[in-house]
Specification:
With 404 residues, this protein is mainly α. Helix content is 77%, strand content 0%.
Length: 404
């Protein structure tokens, strides 16, 4: 146990590599093969498993070293131990081994881990529930189908009834990892009853729980129109807009969830508009303290709302989003990702916009690559003929700027 604590506190792959190179792990595996030694064996298992998880957490190479030594089957067998701490350390070690790659995760699953993890998740001890849920998250990242086949979904959904915030967060993350993989698995998560509690937990007191709920909703709606429509019909837009209002980790996934919903169809985009998401998105863009991830998500979502029709683009235009998007696009201090998202949102919005009061200011400030979209919209609306006399010289000048 002392060696395990030393490796954990050192918190570097280099120290763990020295432990492996010293030949320590084979001795641990050999000791697992000895006959039972009652209480002494329990303490030994706790310490050995603690060292395994301390080594495995760093990288794929160290985790693979544990597998090559034949330790995997012994770690899995410890999930059936009577001692709770032994089961906790075993679940932790298996999660750390499997999280690094699809290959390692497949080996962990093939060793018969998942049914035992699902059983451990149903145990009354809270710490064992939390660690088992965390291991299911790690394995679901690479093997979501196996998690579904193990019958974990219904137990995870039932686990959301528990009042512990850490358990709620891990459970929502596990469901999100499954739902994120593909549409069929997202449908399995929804069919398992995850959607109502996910919406409920979007308003939870604990910020990590709210963020995990937003991520789950995002991972559900991104796949298809039907799934997005189901979330909208269940009243999902309102809680997602509320999550965008508050600063914190839930803002970006909530923003992206609304973007995925809006991108699926014009009717769903209008539902996002009617939920009053656009003013909040523009507020995020105008917030000087917003980070790049928030700016990118807000711009991306506005583009997905506006791209459908002049009516959708009008809703974005009247919220005064274009000047801020243009400012982000032209600002030399803007990061490359924000620059790209702002450019894309402007182009998507302008290609549908026929609202002259929103277009006219861009004639003065937009660079040529954006200006051509503004001029194209004037041509569509015959704005040169029907616009004000003061606008015509600006349009002619803008046209000359766009000439090669």
């Amino acid at each position: 146990m002392l060696l395990g604590h030393w490796v954990t506190s050192a918190s570097t792959a280099k120290i763990s590599g020295l432990v492996v190179d010293a030949g320590t792990l084979p001795l641990l595996v050999l000791a697992f093969q000895e006959p039972e030694m009652s209480l002494k064996q329990v303490y030994y298992k706790r310490s050995a498993l603690y060292l395994f998880r301390a080594v495995a957490k760093h990288n794929e190479e160290l985790a693979s070293a544990i597998v090559r030594l034949g330790a995997l089957e012994h770690i899995v067998s410890c999930l059936e131990d009577f001692d709770t701490q032994v089961k906790e350390n075993a679940a932790w070690a298996l999660g750390y081994i499997g999280k690094h790659s699809e290959t390692l995760s497949g080996l962990v699953v093939d060793a018969g881990t998942l049914p035992l993890l699902v059983l451990a998740f149903q145990e009354p001890e809270m710490s064992l529930k939390q660690i088992s849920a965390g291991a299911l998250v790690d394995l679901a990242q690479h093997k979501p189908e196996a998690v579904v086949d193990a019958g974990a979904i219904c137990h995870l959904v039932r686990g959301l009834e528990n009042q512990d915030p850490k358990l709620k967060r891990s459970t929502l993350c596990a469901l999100g990892a499954v739902a994120s993989a593909r549409a069929e698995l997202a449908e399995a998560v929804v069919a398992g009853g995850a959607l109502p509690p996910a919406l409920l937990h979007a308003g939870h007191d604990a910020a990590p729980v709210r963020r995990a709920a937003a991520c789950l909703l995002r991972d559900i709606v991104k796949h298809s129109v039907d799934l997005a429509q189901l979330v909208v019909n269940t009243g999902g837009c309102g809680p997602l807009v509320e999550l965008m209002i508050e600063a914190g980790g839930a803002r970006v996934p909530a923003c992206m969830a609304l973007g995925y919903i809006a991108g699926q169809s014009d009717q769903l985009a209008m539902a996002v508009v009617e939920a009053k998401a656009i003013p909040t998105l523009v507020d995020i863009l105008q917030n000087d303290t917003a980070d790049d991830a928030e700016l990118c998500a807000a711009a991306w979502t506005l583009g997905h709302i506006a791209k459908h029709s002049p009516q959708h683009s009008l809703a974005v235009a009247v919220a005064n989003a274009f000047p801020r998007l243009l400012q982000l696009y032209t600002n030399p201090k803007t990061s490359g990702e924000v620059h790209a998202r702002a450019s894309c949102a402007l182009k998507q919005s302008l290609q549908c916009c026929l609202h002259r009061p929103a277009l006219e200011p861009l004639l003065h400030a937009a660079p040529a690559c954006i200006l051509k979209y503004v001029l194209a919209q004037y041509a569509k609306a015959r704005a040169v003929c029907f616009g004000s006399a003061s606008t015509v010289p600006h349009i002619c000048t803008a046209f000359l700027h766009c000439m090669p």
